[in-house]
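My main concern about presentation is that the manuscript never shows what a single data entry looks like. In essence, backbone conformation is discretised, so a fold becomes a row of integers matching the chain in length. An entry of this sort, consisting of the sequence and the corresponding backbone structure tokens, reads as follows:
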Amino acid sequence: MTRHVAVYPGSFDPITFGHLDVIARGRRLFDELIVAVGRNPGKDPLFSSDERVEMVEHLIRALVAREPQHAPVQVRAFDGLTVDFAREVGATALLRGVRNLSDLQYEVQQAVTNREVAGLETAFIVAGQSFAYTSSSLIRQITAMGENLDEALTPMCPPAVIARLKQKKAQKHPGLERLRGGAVSDG
């Protein structure tokens, strides 16, 4: 009998309640789920790969403890193409969250390509209504420009993530400063 292993790839910069919803629901569909924390060369990350993996692992431990009857979850960092990583770990499918029609259009195009090129199927989980407009880039913008981060971000991400975002803001992370339109020194 084939084990159905899914890879849920993303940058998770930072991880949101929407991501956690996809993970929780994906655990009910597959025998094993691998959350693949990737590096997107087109994006300037707020958190390092190690920081993102650590945050995701922390939140996944709590999720698995609440629902131990569902599939186990691994968290792994990766570089390169998602399909190469999926092959390496023996995945039978990719798991993707879809928030809206623009996500769906992009994701269907990717799914067709992944099936044709790598023989990988894609399973879509439609975001709950409360997560339809949540994105990591929106969270970074709110962090850069917002004053009361607890109030603004509580509906979108867990308290542990908000605490990390506050640290990045206090440290004047260059990515947040760019979003604010401030000058960033190279030194």
Observations:
- The radius of gyration is 17 Å.
- Confidence is low (pLDDT under 50) at residues 183-187.
- Residues 136-180 form one domain.
- The chain has two domains: 5-130, 136-180.
